């Protein structure tokens, strides 16, 4: 299960790493990791305070990092937006990515009705290049 530090990290750190693992899974789902996806993963790792060493560890052993959903509504939406940004990083959303992001949305605590309502709206805003902050402001 990784390093000793991994065993003693905070709940927030575990949650951040679990979320990053989900981003990696979405980026890899089509069998390749494109330049756009790598760039987005690097930005997300920085935003989540995940070091290069931790990124490598998560990529090598993703099963050790379960998804731990955040408690606040805003943080759940922020994570959901990041997941959608990842599936659209290469400019195309394929069926496997769509199915997996729906699964992650449910795991984040969204109902199917909420997913049906918010997912297309958020995806459209991501496609139009809206910032995460703009998206949050319009859906909360």
Structural commentary:
69% of the residues lie in helices and 0% in strands. With 140 residues, it is mainly α. Helix 2 packs antiparallel against helix 3 (35-47) and helix 5 packs antiparallel against helix 6. The radius of gyration is 14 Å and the shape is globular.
Topology:
Elements: H1 4-7, H2 11-28, H3 35-47, H4 52-60, H5 73-87, H6 95-107, H7 112-127, H8 132-139
Portion in beta strands: under 5%
CATH topology: TerB-like
Level-2 CATH architecture? Orthogonal Bundle
Instruction: Report the CATH C-level class.
Output: Mainly Alpha
Helix content: 55-70%
Morphology: globular
Element-by-element helix/strand order: HHHHHHHH
Report the mean per-residue pLDDT as an integer. 89
Q: Regions with pLDDT < 50 over 5+ consecutive residues?
A: none
- Rg is 14 Å
- Helices, by number, come to 8
How many individual domains?
1
* Class from secondary-structure proportions: mainly alpha
Assembly context of the chains: single chain
What's the total number of strands? 0
Cα separation of the termini: 37 Å
Task: Note the main sheet.
Answer: none
């Amino acid at each position: 299960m990784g390093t000793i530090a991994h065993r003693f990290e905070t709940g927030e750190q575990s949650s951040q790493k679990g979320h990053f693992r989900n981003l990696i899974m979405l980026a890899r789902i089509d069998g390749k990791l494109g330049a756009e996806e790598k760039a987005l993963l690097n930005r997300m790792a920085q935003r989540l305070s995940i070091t290069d060493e931790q990124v490598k560890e998560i990529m090598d052993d993703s099963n050790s990092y379960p998804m731990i959903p955040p408690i606040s509504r805003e943080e759940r939406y922020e994570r959901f937006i990041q997941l959608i940004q990842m599936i659209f990083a290469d400019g195309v959303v394929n069926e496997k990515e769509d199915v997996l992001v729906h699964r992650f949305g449910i795991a984040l605590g969204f109902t199917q009705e909420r997913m049906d309502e918010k997912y297309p709206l958020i995806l459209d805003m991501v496609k139009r290049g809206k910032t995460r902050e703009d998206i949050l402001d319009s859906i909360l």
